[in-house]
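Side project, low priority. Logging it here so it doesn't get lost.
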Amino acid sequence: MCIRMNDRSNINHKDVLNGIENRTLIFIATFFLSQKSQDGGNLSTHRASAGLLKLRDPYFPLRTYGDQFLDKKYRNWSKACDNADAHSNFLSHIMKKSLNPSFFKKLTVVFFLTFLLGFQHLFAETEKQHVLIILAHPNPGSFNHAISKTVEERLIQRGHVVRVRDLYKMGFDPILSLEEWKRYESQAGETPEDVKAEQAEIQWATHLILIYPTWWWSPPAMMKGYLDRVFTPVFAFEADVAGIRGKLQDKKVSIIQTTGADESFIQKNGMDESVRKLMGIGIFGFCGMQVAHHEFLMGISGKSYDELKVVLTEVDAMVGEWF
């Protein structure tokens, strides 16, 4: 699994760090509870630790270890914060125990484990992505739709947030109108509502996945029209005397493209490379986007049902490696 540390635009790092801080206090307080129970400590110190747990983590009753320990020993732990001397006793206990080398070693281990768990949580939050699947096939029972469903399920299973834009099902209009063409370079005036909606989806996403069949060595007109109308100047790129600059540099795109022709024909005639250049350089490269993957599933029309099931299994594994 690939952890993409640069995809952080949708993460509230303050919340993540607060979560780490809460976990640290919970570990420490629970550790002192267990230590004090071993050396016959007083009840007020136990209650102070319990009060700290309650204050820092409102869901503490669901924490397995702490819940079992406190429920067995002190049923009334929730009243701990009513004791004005509890926190001072707790801190006094810390100072006394810190002089014990054995205790210090144990505390060091606790801090180290908490550090590892906290940053594991941070990395887990960091790798979560917003993935936009853009599907272009008119038949709901097509193999392209099966691919889309497989990809969606795998991404959700991995914890990513997924949205699907089924262009034919949506009834997206791929035709660039005369009015749109006239205002194309300046983008003056009002952007059509359907285009604004798609641009908002792209802005939301950190990674786009395009799924489509190959028709006449190129994407279907529906997909091409989508790119024509949605990836417009000002939104996707800008051009002036200084040159052309892509404006979607924080986004990546992957492409899954099916073909009827088999691998030998495609490679002999260079169709795969021509389409890779079209999409990678001529379209997405122009907008500053990185094409992370462009996968061709070749000879689909000649495969049996069982063979197609194998292909879907391979797609599932492939997407698992991508994300």
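Brief comment: The two ends are 6 Å apart (CA to CA).
Revisit when time allows.
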